[in-house]
Amino acid sequence: MKNNSFEEIGNIIRKAEKILLFPHINMDGDTLGSCAALCKALRNLGKECYILIEDHIPANLAFLDRGYCTSDQNIVEKPDLSICIDCGDADRFIRRKEKFQQSPITICIDHHGTTEFYCDYNYVDSKAAATGELIFKLLRAMDLPLDREMGGAIFAAITTDTGNFQYSNTSKETHEITAALYDTGIDSNEISVELYENNRIEKLLIKNRALNTLTTVCDGQGVIAYVTQEMLTETGALMDETEGVVEELRSISNVEVAAFLKEAEADKIKVSMRSKYKVNVADIAYSLGGGGHERAAGFTLYCSLTEAFDMITEKMTDSLGKL
């Protein structure tokens, strides 16, 4: 299957009056920033539009929600249109899936290479550094002006998903789109402070505990660390405050691939993987029921932490052994 055009998708959006936007669970800056920008644009058109969520918004992303987010699935009883944003499959919003499917028309806008076309209209571009880039292009195709708030939300989407423009997915076009956002009057420093300098002390405590679990694989080419529910209780931290740990692991000299295991609950382990140059972690994730990008991917294992640790060690050793 091939993508629909932004023009086609824009025409469908213009015809709808009641629209729900669906970010993925464990929201990051890309999914929420993209949703916030699109929600503001659609409200500017006079649409009844909300971002439907099922979990809490991380503290450093709270500034993006200006009355857009709701967990009330009945706030729009019969939506004309449902749009999932930055979601590779419907399991990424499992508790909202039924509501999503109530709409007579569904749209998917995403940038994950493992995304399958599962909506009526789809635009998936794995070359895009962030879904925020695609929202920018959609709004341009619809000839909708971007204001300072929308520009800031898209900037947040792009900067977080590119590791502040450090990751290999960053392209010339990424910088060109970002440059255009400055024309809306954004204050990149103000946004960056909200995103990166707005941490509770509990986040530093849990990061320290997690890094103390570090184990090396294949003479230090791979590293694995984990966090447990007990560690969260002891530090008073929230699970979303472990975001960024896997990037810290990858930043270690000579490390090619890193994995961070999060004990969501007993026998449910969420795994984030990152690589620097050669290992395609999306392949590993896909083989275990997940997905993502070549250098950043994730999946969930339904087993004990010890079993998950052993499984990831085996997968990592196998991948590194092929280099």
From TrEMBL:
GO terms for molecular function: nucleic acid binding. It holds the Pfam family DHHA1. Residues 18-158 form the DDH domain. It comes from the Bacteria. Residues 225-314 form the DHHA1 domain. PANTHER family: BIFUNCTIONAL OLIGORIBONUCLEASE AND PAP PHOSPHATASE NRNA. This is Bifunctional oligoribonuclease/PAP phosphatase NrnA. It comes from Emergencia timonensis. The lineage of its organism: Bacteria, Bacillati, Bacillota, Clostridia, Peptostreptococcales.
